[in-house]
Amino acid sequence: MKSLRPVCCESHRRHFLGTSVAAALLGVGMATASSRTEAASLSEAQRNAMTPDQVIKSMLDGNARFLSGVHKERNFLAEMRSSATGQFPAAIVLSCIDSRAPIEVVCDLGIGDTFNARVAGNAVNDDILGSMEFACAAAGAKVVMVVGHTACGATKGAIDNVVLGNLTLLLARFKSAIDATVYEGARTSKNAAFVDAVTKTHVQQALPLIRGRSAVLSGLEAEGKIKIVGAMYDIASGKVTLV
């Protein structure tokens, strides 16, 4: 009859080694996690110390991180808790409702970093202007950024003169951008380059529109307290570019 001792000892040895390896790996994981610097929501002092140009640069730097795949380590629950008693966003961003263009994600932003307004085709209206005024004049944001994106469905609908309930009036806001876009190729919604050119024009036209219709915002910009800028987001490459 064979002895059971070697078998038991071997089983115990394997269990011990397995436990030791698991503990070692857990220790490495905990050390790695504890050594990471987690991003936190902006404090009032941090936001107030930034210039409008620095805010814009920080957003473009965030997009560069997004493109590289090396983003800030974030604990969104911690950001939620830390911002629950007050918010100090550095910018307000007007972008399209398109599900492929989440500016907070593509600029590596966290909870409390920006005010975010979204409407089809990033169209400016009175409600949006009022929101921008609140963000900058009341809450201290330093930048108003209007962001369009490539392959915009709202732009395509405007080019095609789509008629659909309340959407009809919204798309009518694109007419001046369509007319003002200089383009020698096919001026149709099937031409991606023309669609993107119109969207870019629409963003560029939004900037003087904001200044002209909001004495509050134009006054803050004249004093150097804020900047009003436009950008385009490429949904294929992931890059955000000022326009």
What would you note in describing this structure?
With 243 residues, the chain is of the alpha/beta class. It has two domains: 35 residues; 204 residues, 3-Layer(aba) Sandwich (Beta-carbonic Anhydrase, Chain A), CATH 3.40.1050. The chain has a five-stranded mixed sheet, with helices on both faces. The chain starts with a helix and ends with a strand. The N terminus is likely disordered.
Rg over CA atoms, rounded to whole Å, is: 25 Å
Major sheet? 5 strands, mixed
Spatial order of the strands forming the largest sheet: 4-3-5-6-7
Order of helices and strands: HEHHEHEHEHEHHHHHEE
Distance between the first and last residues' Cα? 85 Å
CATH superfamily of the largest domain: Carbonic anhydrase
Looking at the structure, what is the overall shape? Answer: globular
CATH domain fold name of the largest domain: Beta-carbonic Anhydrase, Chain A
Mean pLDDT across every amino acid position: 87
What number of domains?
2
Unreliable stretches: 1-14, 19-37
Structural class: alpha/beta
User: Which range does the strand content fall in?
Assistant: 5-15%
Number of strands: 7
CATH second-level architecture of the largest domain: 3-Layer(aba) Sandwich
Cofactor: Zn(2+)
Organism: Variovorax paradoxus
InterPro entries: Carbonic_anhydrase, Carbonic_anhydrase_sf
Keywords: Metal-binding, Zinc
Give a quick summary of the entry.
This protein is an alpha/beta fold. It contains eleven helices and seven strands. The protein folds into two domains: 1-35; 39-242, 3-Layer(aba) Sandwich (Beta-carbonic Anhydrase, Chain A).
